[in-house]
């Protein structure tokens, strides 16, 4: 079970959190202007890298705040967590 | 003469406290500190157990968790279906029964062992309290926890928290270790988070596969030594030790010093220092020799030894102590990424140095084990008598059969033979099996290692994992403020999520059908009342609340007048219906939205996710108020009269208080919000009050309604009434693959208001396909027949050969009292085009004709909603 550093609450057990998929996929500014392919890409397509990637978590059984995290998918290591209004650190 | 208690010795024993327990109905004497196994050996027993598949006689083979033969059920003073006899400390009056590797649960309810969970945060956790573990604990700085699965931790270092009978079940990410502690008749699960984990679990001695190696009296040399040192029990008087390494030799030496006659059989050509040492002490050591057979009836009586010249000698023996080398106990660490490498000198697999930085492996677990002559199988005698996994009755012949079938990986052989899938987790069989496979394939020793190990490392009762989270604490029950009234009026409940909702209120000897018929009839002709408190309620506040709801719902909420109510859908990004409910505008910057009973938490989560992740500039706050409001829905043609009689300050006149608006005021003398919404199609008022006032208002409504024959009604009647109106229930008439248009509800989508969640998906090629399934009504040809929900629908009366093309399925189906016939809702391919057509419902290989209709059966003009 991972130890996850909530940007507001500090290190907490993974069981307090819920996973939210890949981060930094902004909702399109004007969905109507997208082709069906572009919209489908936004809706359904996600990366699946081996190594570090950015993902969303929510401290569901804690402060209920969403935040972003950089995690290494090969080692499970949580490289960094950061608030939604912060730049991706690495 | 066989095993016996010596006059002195036994580090774990308290000879001042004799105990007596029952084993298979026989009374056995022992001392406090004994295990069931040690007391049985002290009493001279060698067998007493049988194998699970072949029913072969078996005896105690080990002194620990690796035991593959001797299992007991504990019947008194608590119940446990199965434990290794080697791991059960005896208590006076205990009743145990032998079990053939499989526990049996009694028919009667049994009280689970009481269990609790604790959380510990330490600097260092040391797993295993042998020499290496104690040294690591003594050297550790900060808060240190030392655990050992055995009943005794001898000489724990000062300042260290030491727990005996505590086993690490699994090591997980970031130093999280689940530990299982037994305290007499109770269990504790420790959730340990450690900055540093030291694995000092030692090493397990390995058996050798020779013919007759499962006979009672054959045991590991380390076990014979453990019974001597811990319990003062000499397992046998005439001992043959079959040993490949100096630890096995030394164990034999200790047995000799304790008074046994000992012959050591050593397969290595000359032997090493230990051989010389034993010979100097006068012990008979046979180098370049091996055990090829055992005899007994069934417990061991004689051992046949093959000498260097190939000649056989049979000697009397009551114990055959086997030491085939040592396996470091690293199973626990393998799940967290620790790898193995083969050590030729020691003939075993050792930790290869990989793994997380916070994990350290020390002592025997780290490969600090004796060098060993590599011997896995004695190539004489019948392979079907050489047991590899006694607990699955699997032999060298069975492994060979798996390899002959083409399997080469120890993982595959495990699955073909079930070796290692046992209570003992393959502790004695894992490496042995891998090496037999290597040998059969003519691969080098160590070419592949044992199959992987997974938590739990040793069996843990489910009751321990559950802890106190059983019964009501496992799945809490939510009840409304009106529950005491429902209880007093014979409500039959339906579980909706965790809520208990009244399904119907039977009178006299009514069954559900009769009660629902009466409840629906009463509502349609006069008045009924429903506890609707479980509907999810969320307050959405802030200057941007209207803009936010416009983006979340298919229709426009920002132009809703204060005091007005609007029904809306929420869609997924994929355009499919996610939840429904009404929004009420309480003030310019304040809305109250309702959700389905089951969807409340998911809707709030979704609001938060969009507000926090996507539209972080919006000034909107969401608060769950589901339990802050009780909702009493008074419906039916006489609803206005009843509410008037109950007393209200709200002007109920149709002009003053039109449909889809709400008014704040008082009902029955208490503050209330009255909403004109209807899920039945008839005139209806939803009265929202504080839960503290709910029973009072409900009673007032019942009293006021009595002259009108008011009935309380439950969810079943509600379902019938709404289905008569063609109102969908999200999650019953939808399954996450329906757009609003599929439900015939395009009117709810306001495409002119700008973007909302799911809007773009409503024009995806798949969503605008012409052959999508659409919501329709169905009337069975036989009006008395109620179609089962889920019934599949066909175009043809004759069931075609598979794969038949199904048009859809029935989603809701009821007896409708108002129509005196059955009605149903269904999702049907091109359903709206088929209105008036006959299709066919398939049931148990037969079909029944049904007519496709509009889904609104009752009052399609909506004339009744105003009463």
Tertiary shape of chain A? globular
- In DSSP terms (H or I, runs of 4 or more residues), the helix count of chain A works out at 1
Range of strand content of chain A: 35-45%
Count the domains of chain A: 1
User: For the CA atoms, what is the radius of gyration of chain A?
Assistant: 15 Å
CATH C-level label of chain A: Alpha Beta
Q: Write the CATH fold name of chain A.
A: Folate-binding fold
- Helical content band of chain A: 10-25%
Instruction: Please describe the biggest sheet of chain A, giving its number of strands, its sense, and whether it closes into a barrel.
Output: 4 strands, antiparallel
The total domain count of chain B is 7
Relevant CATH superfamily of the largest domain in chain B: FAD/NAD(P)-binding domain
The appropriate CATH architecture of chain A is 2-Layer Sandwich
Distance from N terminus to C terminus of chain B (CA atoms, Å) equals 98 Å
CATH topology heading of the largest domain in chain B: FAD/NAD(P)-binding domain
What's the overall average pLDDT of chain A, rounded?
95
Flag low-confidence runs of chain B. Answer: none
Strand order of the largest sheet of chain A: 3-4-5-6
Low-confidence residue ranges of chain A = none
Q: Main sheet of chain B, how many strands, which sense, barrel?
A: 7 strands, mixed
CATH class of the largest domain in chain B: Alpha Beta
The helix/strand series of chain A, from N terminus to C terminus, equals: EEEHEEE
């Amino acid at each position: 079970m991972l130890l996850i550093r909530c940007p507001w609450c500090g290190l907490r057990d993974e069981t307090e959190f819920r996973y939210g998929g890949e981060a930094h996929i902004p909702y399109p500014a004007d969905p109507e202007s997208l082709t069906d392919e572009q919209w489908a890409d936004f809706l359904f397509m996600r990366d699946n890298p081996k190594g570090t990637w950015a993902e969303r978590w929510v401290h569901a059984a804690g402060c209920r705040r969403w935040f972003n995290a950089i995690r290494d998918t090969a080692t499970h290591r949580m490289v960094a967590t950061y608030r939604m209004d912060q730049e991706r650190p690495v | 003469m066989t095993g016996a208690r010596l006059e002195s010795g036994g580090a774990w024993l308290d000879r001042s406290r004799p105990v007596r327990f029952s084993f298979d109905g026989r009374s056995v004497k022992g001392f406090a500190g004994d295990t069931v196994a040690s007391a049985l050996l002290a009493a001279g027993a060698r067998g007493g157990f049988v194998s699970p598949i072949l029913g072969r006689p078996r005896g105690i083979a080990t002194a620990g968790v690796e035991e593959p033969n001797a299992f007991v059920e504990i019947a008194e003073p608590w119940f446990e279906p199965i434990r290794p006899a080697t791991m059960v400390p005896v208590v006076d009056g205990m009743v145990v029964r032998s079990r053939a590797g499989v526990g049996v649960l009694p028919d009667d309810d049994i009280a689970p062992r009481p269990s609790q969970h604790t959380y510990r945060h330490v600097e260092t956790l040391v797993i295993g309290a042998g020499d290496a573990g104690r040294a690591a604990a003594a050297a550790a700085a900060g808060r240190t926890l030392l655990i050992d699965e055995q009943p005794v931790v001898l000489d724990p270092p000062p300042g260290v928290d030491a727990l005996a009978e505590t086993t690490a079940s699994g090591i997980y990410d970031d130093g999280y270790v689940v530990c299982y502690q037994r305290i007499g008749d109770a269990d504790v699960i420790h959730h340990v988070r450690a900055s540093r984990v030291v694995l000092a679990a030692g090493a397990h001695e390995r058996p050798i596969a020779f013919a007759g190696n499962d006979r009672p009296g054959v045991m590991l040399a380390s076990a014979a030594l453990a019974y001597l040192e811990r319990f003062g029990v000499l397992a046998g008087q005439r001992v043959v030790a079959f040993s490949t390494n100096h630890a096995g030799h030394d164990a034999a030496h200790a047995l000799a010093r304790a008074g046994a006659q000992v012959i050591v059989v050593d397969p290595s050509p000359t032997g090493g220092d230990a051989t010389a040492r034993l010979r100097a002490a006068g012990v008979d050591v046979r180098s370049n020799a091996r055990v090829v057979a055992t005899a007994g009836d069934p417990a061991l009586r004689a051992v046949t030894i093959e000498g260097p010249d190939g000649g056989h000698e049979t000697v009397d023996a009551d114990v055959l102590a086997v030491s085939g080398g040592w396996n470091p106990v690293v199973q626990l660490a393998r799940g967290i990424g620790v790898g193995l490498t083969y050590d030729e000198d020691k003939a075993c697999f050792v930790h290869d140095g990989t793994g997380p930085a916070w994990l350290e492996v020390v002592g025997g677990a780290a490969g600090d084990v004796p060098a060993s002559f590599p011997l896995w199988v004695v190539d004489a005698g019948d392979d079907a008598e050489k047991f590899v996994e006694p607990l699955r009755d699997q032999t060298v012949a069975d492994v060979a059969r798996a390899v002959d079938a083409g399997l080469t990986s120890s993982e595959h052989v495990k699955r073909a033979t079930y070796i290692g899938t046992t209570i003992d987790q393959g502790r004695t069989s894992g490496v042995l099996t891998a090496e037999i496979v290597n040998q059969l394939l003519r691969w080098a020793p160590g070419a592949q290692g044992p199959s992987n190990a997974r938590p739990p490392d040793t069996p843990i009762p489910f009751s321990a994992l559950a802890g106190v989270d059983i019964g009501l604490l496992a799945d809490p029950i939510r009840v409304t403020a009106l529950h005491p009234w429902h209880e007093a009026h014979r409500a039959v409940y339906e579980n909706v999520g965790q809520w208990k909702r009244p399904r119907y209120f039977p009178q006299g000897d009514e069954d559900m059908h009769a009660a629902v018929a009466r409840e629906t009839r009463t509502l349609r002709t006069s008045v009924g009342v429903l506890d609707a408190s479980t509907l999810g309620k969320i307050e959405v506040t802030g200057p941007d609340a209207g803009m936010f709801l416009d983006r979340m719902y298919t229709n426009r909420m920002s132009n809703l007048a204060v005091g007005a109510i609007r029904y809306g859908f929420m869609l997924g990004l994929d355009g499919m219906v996610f939840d429904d409910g009404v929004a009420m505008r309480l003030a310019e910057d304040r809305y109250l939205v309702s959700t389905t009973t089951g969807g409340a938490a998911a809707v709030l989560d979704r609001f938060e996710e969009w507000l926090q992740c996507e539209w972080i500039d919006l000034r909107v706050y969401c608060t769950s108020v589901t339990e802050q409001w009780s909702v009493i829905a008074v419906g039916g043609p006489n609803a206005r009269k009843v509410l008037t009689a109950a007393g209200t300050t709200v002007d109920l006149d149709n002009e003053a208080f039109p449909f889809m608006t709400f008014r704040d005021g008082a009902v029955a003398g208490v503050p209330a919000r009255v909403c004109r919404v209807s899920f039945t199609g008839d005139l209806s008022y939803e009265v929202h009050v504080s839960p503290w006032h709910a029973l009072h208002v409900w009673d007032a409504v019942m009293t006021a309604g009595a002259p009108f024959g008011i009935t309380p009604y439950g969810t079943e009647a509600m379902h019938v009434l709404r289905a008569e109106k063609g109102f969908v229930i999200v999650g019953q008439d939808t399954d996450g693959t329906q757009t609003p248009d599929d439900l015939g509800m395009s009117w709810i989508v306001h495409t002119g208001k700008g973007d909302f969640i799911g809007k773009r998906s409503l024009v995806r090629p798949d969503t605008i396909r012409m052959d999508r399934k659409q919501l329709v009504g169905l009337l069975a040809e036989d009006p008395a027949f109620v179609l089962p929900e889920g019934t599949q629908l066909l175009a043809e009366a004759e069931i075609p050969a598979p794969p038949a093309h199904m048009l859809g399925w029935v989603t809701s189906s009821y007896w409708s009292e108002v129509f005196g016939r059955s009605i149903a809702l269904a999702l049907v391919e091109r359903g709206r085009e088929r209105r008036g057509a006959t299709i066919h419902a398939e049931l148990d290989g037969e079909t029944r004709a049904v007519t496709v209709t509009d889904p609104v059966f009752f009052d399609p003009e909506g004339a009744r909603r105003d009463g």
